[in-house]
Amino acid sequence: xxxxxxWDVDAxxxxxxxxxGMFAPEVVGPTVxxxxxxxxxxxxxxxxxxxxxxxxxxAARGVPVTGIELSLPMIDRLRARADEAAIPVIVGDxxxxxxxxxxxxVYLVYNTISNLLTQTEQVAxxxxxxxxxxxxxxxxxxxxxxxxxxxxxxxxxxxxxxxxDYIALDTYDVxxxxxxxxxxxxxxxxxxxxxxxxxxxxxxAELDLMAQLAGFELETRHADxxxxxxxxxxxxxxxxxxxxANRSI
Length: 249
Fold this sequence. Notes:
The protein has helices spanning 3-6, 9-15, 25-39, 55-60, 72-79, 119-132, 204-213; strands at 44-47, 65-69, 89-91, 103-108, 133-144, 157-163, 166-173, 178-186, 192-200, 217-222, 236-242. By secondary structure, the protein is α/β, with parallel strands linked by helices. Strands 3-2-1-4-5-11-10 form a seven-stranded mixed sheet, with helices on both faces. Strand 4 (103-108), helix 6 (119-132) and strand 5 form a beta-alpha-beta unit.
């Protein structure tokens, strides 16, 4: 199934959880603070802008934001928050679609680069980011660290969240570097709702090599948007890459 089919009307509606989860102020606030600082007085481009979870508050901070998004239902929900004049959106794949102009910042948050299911597509995403950036510009990626250390021999699944009404687990295909996230939620009527998403996981070192192939340098890597040190125990990272200021365009 293609990504445009996965992110249908129902998925776009479930994605929005105003005020809680990834939409909670304590999650969105530090993200917007860091991105606004990197954008400075320049323009920002969000790959896979979705329903505007980050773009809308970033634009409210005075940063001009443009988006690229494959899913029309996601764009429809964004339009309930901001019109085309406020946040222009290019319909297309983040690995290939082109937005007009150049930008000080391109960003890709909440593990979304892993929605590209081949290494070739992921490298193309880096090159697409570089294509849009002015010399000295930044490309920011937020991504989880694969939890393969938790897999004993013969086991394929890792449970990463377990609540009374919600269980989330990942099943790994280590041969092809693929993972499927399974989200099982118990509804009030007693029925269980299952949602799945497919990903290609990326180690930080591989991500850095992709960046080098596209002409980037790693500037910083932290465990979160607050700037916590990245260690061997970190479950995620925020990596900031930079196009050299002396690059010719």
